[in-house]
UniProtKB/TrEMBL annotation:
This is Glucose-induced degradation protein 4 homolog. Belongs to the GID4/VID24 family. It comes from the Eukaryota. Residues 14-56 are annotated as: Disordered. Residues 16-27 have a biased composition (Basic and acidic residues). Pfam families: Vac_ImportDeg. Residues 38-48 have a biased composition (Polar residues).
Amino acid sequence: PISLCWISITSGTLRRRSDDDDDDRGKKMPVRVVESNAPAQVSGSDPGNRSPLPRSSLLAAGQAFSGTQNVSNQQKEEAWRVNVQIQGVDLEHGYLCGTMEALNVPMADTPVITFWEGEIVDGKNYTFNTGKWEATREDDLRHWSKFPSFAPLQGQVESDGGRQLDLSNYPYIFMRWKEQYFVNVGTDCGLTIAGFYYVCFSCSDGSISGFYYDPNSSPFQKLELKTVNEGRSGFSFSSYELQ
């Protein structure tokens, strides 16, 4: 039988992989965002002028979330406790970043923390089509359709990728979260950050649901988070650097 190990992300990302996965994809790397350099557009995005998504008070720098990620498989039912904190938000460029922490990872002596960067689906900077990270159009639709709030948009997305959709006042914000590096453990920890999350954020109550995608991991590992009433310590920015 293939030996499997669990994978997690700071404050709420979990997944497993086979032992022969490429650990190099989890290497620590510097992250820089500069105001003059907007994130690269996904193929099919509309460069036309559109209003940015509403700046929800619950999707802001310093906001914390807590919940679980279901990492069950055919042999075992299991969910891990996870925490997420947003560290920066730049709605103009469809960007946010933060940390995730997995608290009860069976093979780890301490909580496992990762740094992630997010793409906000706004029709200007990013669309529903991922176009990278080994995700096909079929993978995108299969995961987005798991969110009930995507149902009213699905027909248009299937037709033209959603290029004609105006999401500026939609009560949900769709995102992709991609872990970039481990914060407190090395790449030999037995975990991987090769995949990414399809994420849906509710503007009304701040709840977050997500599904992890990695062709080499258990499918549809579900992330469920709720806001935590804590003092905010993040930042909004025009530029920043993490080393």
